[in-house]
Structure formats: C-alpha cells, structure tokens
Automatic annotation (TrEMBL):
GO biological process: regulation of DNA-templated transcription
InterPro entries: AraC-bd (IPR003313), HTH-like (IPR037923)
High-level lineage: Bacteria, Pseudomonadati, Bacteroidota, Flavobacteriia, Flavobacteriales
Domain of life of the native organism: Bacteria
Domain AraC-type arabinose-binding/dimerisation: 6-94
Gene Ontology MF: a single term: DNA binding
Protein name as annotated: AraC-like protein
Record keywords: DNA-binding
Amino acid sequence: MLFDDLEYISIENQTTDFPKHFHETFCISLIYSGIEQINFDNQNLFSEKGSISITNPYEIHSNPLIDKKTCLKFDTIYLSNDLMKYLLNGKSITFLNRKINSEKANLLFVKLKNAMNTRNPEIIECSLKEFVNTLKFHSQENETEYIKQHIKGFDDINCYIVDKPVKVNHVRRMKVSIAN
C-alpha cells in the first residue's frame, strides 16, 4: 500500500533534548501546548501552540527544550519525499518558511491524523491530499533531490554530529519515541 510508511507520533510531555539528527522524511508537527525549538545550522525556529513546524528531509537539526518545567505537547506526521512528490504530480518541494500559522492547515492535520487511525486507505488518501494541497502554498519547488542537496554521505553527517557521535547504523533509521 502506498501509505505503509505513513507514521505519526504523539508527544504529551517532552522532557528530553534531542541531539543533532535528521529524518528521511518531512517532519510536520502541530504544537498543542508549550513552545517547540528546532535548531538548524544557521537558524533557530520557535513554534508555539497552534502553529505547524516543518523540517525537510535530511535536514540536520536538534530539538532542545526551552524550559523543562513547561509542558510541550505535539503530534508529528512523517511524510516521505516520494509520497509528497506522488501527491503533487511529480513536483519536488521544500519548505523555506518552516512555520505555518493556519487554522485550516491545523484542522486538516488533525483530520489526517484521525484518518490514519482508521487504517482505511481511501479515507487516508483523501485527508492526505487535502492536507498536502494546503501545505503546498507554503512551499517552493525544490530543484535538486534532497539527499544530493543536503548530504553526500554519512561522513558528511558525522561532521555535523559533533556533540554526540552516532554510529552510521543508528542514523539510517532513527525513530524517536518518548515514554510519558
């Protein structure tokens, strides 16, 4: 099925910083409470309650906590670049503006998450198309493939990850899970 790799996580009370890492997918998060911080090489992004944050595939970033006493609650949906291109008729996109404040996008995010819980391919596809069509207005066309644009290999990744060395096998399929 086309949506086999479609995943989301729900974080109710993040208490741990995430060190530098990347994902092979677009990471699209809806913030419910608190302030999410994402640090990129040359930019820090702060997303508050009611906003959506987006990290592009293979973008090296970290997620430090601003205040460990403040509850950070969010959901993140992971969309592969291939799935995004399929939904956009072969068009490759990137998000330079990584923060979206749109009530419509928020509602469609929640609708997609709920559709994913049904495991019904038709419902998921319909909700996914609606959501991606809303997101595309906040994106730009990407001229190059992500892996070629951002990294040439795992040696490049290891150069970025200086705080905590990560073995290549762990970087290939890093997934985040947090226990409440």
